[in-house]
Structures are given as structure tokens and as C-alpha cells.
Design brief:
Length: 158
Amino acid sequence: MTEDYIQIMIESLEKKLTVLDKIAEVNKRQYEVSSAQPFDTEQYDEVMDEKGKLIDEVNSLDEGFTSIYELVRDEVNANPAQYRDMVLKLQELVRKAVDKGVEIEVQEKRNKNSLEASMALSRKALRQKRVSQNVALQYYKSSQKINNVDPQLMDKKK
């Protein structure tokens, strides 16, 4: 029975690795979307929704793994030699998952920096647009005053 639970834990970790690979792929797309100019909010939201679903799946797998681990922990600790090969396989998968998690964390930092840079460019462009509009408005107002001659200054001799 314990071996079945450990096998379920191994399968859970393998599935988690697959989902983490998908998250890494989504992170690459997120970087591309956040780096693109002009920034496409809808496309970025779609990528983030997809990534959110994958993160929820990882959390669910982690919860299931933990609950099964609680069931078999005492038995495995009492008889380590009996489950040695399976435990070694679990340890290897956990190392891979941690490595993949670190890789994803690096991607997240890169994506954050890319998004911040993109937002800064958008703010700068928006600020420049406002300045241009204000300059055009001031020019328009000034030109209206030049063409408008006050009646008291008109020369009536002719």
C-alpha cells in the first residue's frame, strides 16, 4: 500500500515538472509580449490568465503531494531500506523541480524588469503626447490673439 502511495507521489512530481515546463514556456511568451512596443494589454492579460491556471495546477499538485507524504512518512522512516529506490527517485524529482523553480524565478525577475521598462516607455510617450498637445493648444491660442485686432486700435482714416 505504501509503495502505491509513493508511486503516486512520483507521478505527481513528474506531472509537476511538466507543468513547470509549461510555465517556463508561458514566461518566454510573457517576456515577448511585455517587450513588444506598443504594449498590448489584452495579450498580456491572456498570457497572465494562462499562467495563473498553471500556477493553480502546481499548487494543487503540491497539496496532494503533501497530503500523501503525511500518510507514508512514518512507514518510510521506519523502513528506509525497503523504500530506498523509490525515495531516491523522489529526491531526484524534487531536485529537478527545485531547479526548474529557480529557473522560473529568474524568468520572473526578467519579465518584471521588462514590464517595468515597457511601462516607463509608455508613461514617457504619454507625457510627451500631453506636452505636444499643450504646445499645440498654446500655439492655437496665441495665433487667435494675433489675428484678432482690437477695434479701438483700428485706423479709421482712409
